[in-house]
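Model: You mentioned two targets. I'll fold them one after the other.
Researcher: Yes, keep them separate.
Model: Target one:
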Amino acid sequence: MSGTGNLCQVFYDEVRIPIENVVGDINDGWNVSMTTLGFERGTAFIGHQVALASTVDKLVALAGNVSAADGCGTAIEDGAVASALGTLRAQVAALRAMTYLSVSRGLVQEVPGPEGNVIALYYAELSKKVYALAVELLGAEGLEKRTTERDWLTEYLDAFKNTIAGGSSQIRRNVIGERLLGLPRGR
């Protein structure tokens, strides 16, 4: 647990819902849940994506302020680090483009399709990469200075929740394979 407390599971037993509060048809909860998850896995990540783009910019600044692994100059002067930062910026732009496509499709579709799984999966994996690079750049110093302005280590650990919430990365891959690529259903 990262300490942020943003992930939980709740069970309700023997709950009665007044008929006027039922969403969708009686005994059609699966379709209601899938529609809700379609939104959650797609366009609901827009705010998180904006924050992730800002985080990449802060990571670039961090790379300019920490020493390179070999001790010569700053981390951003290392070609491999600069390349990794450029790749992360490009991947954030790709994520934004996928979201624009999803929003555009949403204008003509009443119910979101399984495409939101691609966005959610990509976001989850990308956020882990962003924070992993920060932890790598900080090295042992990142463990020692966890109370500074930005706690990159806690944010790295917190990023793993995105590979679970709203359906794990494995579930998302299965949905993408079955519903988008037409692959046979997994066992």
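Model: Target two:
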Amino acid sequence: MRRTFQALGVGLRTRDFYLLAGTFFICGASTNGLIGTHLIPACIDNGIPEVAAASLLASMAVFNFFGATGSGWLSDRVDCRILLCVYYGLRGLSLLVLPFSFDTFYGLALFTMFYGLDWIATIRRPCA
């Protein structure tokens, strides 16, 4: 237990710890606080039925499987810092496109695939 707190103390004195903690906080807020909470009501507000909206959200899990698996494979071959930068950039880009995706079900389905691939890919990094 003492070693755990010693390691935490070392981490708290580094800039990298705060950068990762901050970006993971934003990542979690966008995933759970925005998409997980508000996607279905936003779909309903834009005329997409509840079942179709729930199916879109559930399909993110399927694409998450492929995204997380691909991320694990890539992390063995590419510098993890570059991967994390690309993942956060793609996540931000997809969230910028989201308000324009509600025009059609297919636009939202494309967002779902894109965002689902990146959903948990940010934490599937075995290297730090």
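Researcher: Noted. Anything on target two?
Model: The chain has five helices and no strands.
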